[in-house]
């Protein structure tokens, strides 16, 4: 059974559509949405509805910091553009869509897998896994063999051996990586809706639960159309232009 791991969609309809199509073509049978469904992008209602439909079919979805901010209000730590996007996004969603976001769990466990947006040691604190130190802290905080999380928009892979030896890896797209059963693993698939490594192509990962093979994927999509949706969204023009440029540049 292949599981598609998709995180940080950020209301990007074009990117999410392309990733769903790519995942299904490549054999994905189940989906895990690792938070930040909304924020920044121009199609929050469409993205939330698509995730709701996937969840009704058995998909896993967890809450991200932008999803939480839609429900409770922008966090004090949020930058001005993110804050403006949150306030605009909330006005685009109806009561049922807001209720869905409010009901998302902070984490989900299934079959020796932990699904969480930011980390395992403090899911509601949304601390970033910026390197090996935070990754090991997260792995030590869970008994699960596999942790799948987002929040960091760049793809990364970390592992912890039974003897306490830690490792990290910057993956190459499309390469199968065997996740050896004698280690714990932390997988960050990267951002579907707003990659930040200079490459605008959407990120996600595929995990074959039967074989233990993981592959990180990059999916080109119509980034010009996604940027145009942001520009036409009704957001403050200066904010919209900055957010559109970030999509185009992969920042």
TrEMBL record:
<dbReference type="InterPro" id="IPR029052">
    <property type="entry name" value="Metallo-depent_PP-like"/>
</dbReference>
<feature type="domain" description="Calcineurin-like phosphoesterase">
    <location>
        <begin position="1"/>
        <end position="211"/>
    </location>
</feature>
<comment type="similarity">
    <text>Belongs to the metallophosphoesterase superfamily. YfcE family.</text>
</comment>
<protein>
    <submittedName>
        <fullName>Metallophosphoesterase family protein</fullName>
    </submittedName>
</protein>
<dbReference type="Pfam" id="PF12850">
    <property type="entry name" value="Metallophos_2"/>
</dbReference>
<dbReference type="InterPro" id="IPR050126">
    <property type="entry name" value="Ap4A_hydrolase"/>
</dbReference>
<dbReference type="InterPro" id="IPR024654">
    <property type="entry name" value="Calcineurin-like_PHP_lpxH"/>
</dbReference>
<dbReference type="InterPro" id="IPR011152">
    <property type="entry name" value="Pesterase_MJ0912"/>
</dbReference>
């Amino acid at each position: 059974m292949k599981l598609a791991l998709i995180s940080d969609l950020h209301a990007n309809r074009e990117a999410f559509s392309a990733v769903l199509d790519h995942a299904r073509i490549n054999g994905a049978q189940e989906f895990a949405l690792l938070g930040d469904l909304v924020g920044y992008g121009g199609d929050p209602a469409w993205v939330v509805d698509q995730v709701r439909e996937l969840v009704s079919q058995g998909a896993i979805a967890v809450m991200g910091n932008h999803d939480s901010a839609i429900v409770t209000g922008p966090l004090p730590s949020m930058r001005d553009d993110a804050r403006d996007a949150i306030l605009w996004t909330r006005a685009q969603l109806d009561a049922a869509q807001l209720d869905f976001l409010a009901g998302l769990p902070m984490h989900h466990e299934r079959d020796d897998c932990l699904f969480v947006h930011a980390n395992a040691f403090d899911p509601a604190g949304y601390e970033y896994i910026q390197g090996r130190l935070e990754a090991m802290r997260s792995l030590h905080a869970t008994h699960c063999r596999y942790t799948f999380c987002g929040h960091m928009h760049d793809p990364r892979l970390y592992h912890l051996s039974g003897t306490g030896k830690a490792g990290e890896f910057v993956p190459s797209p499309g390469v199968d990586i065997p996740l050896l059963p004698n280690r714990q693993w932390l997988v960050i698939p990267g951002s579907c809706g707003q990659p930040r490594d200079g490459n605008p192509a959407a990120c996600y990962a595929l995990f074959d639960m039967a074989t233990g093979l993981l592959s990180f994927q990059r999916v080109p999509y119509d980034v010009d159309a996604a940027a145009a949706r942001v520009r036409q969204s009704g957001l403050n023009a200066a904010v919209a232009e900055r957010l559109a440029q970030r999509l185009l540049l992969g920042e």
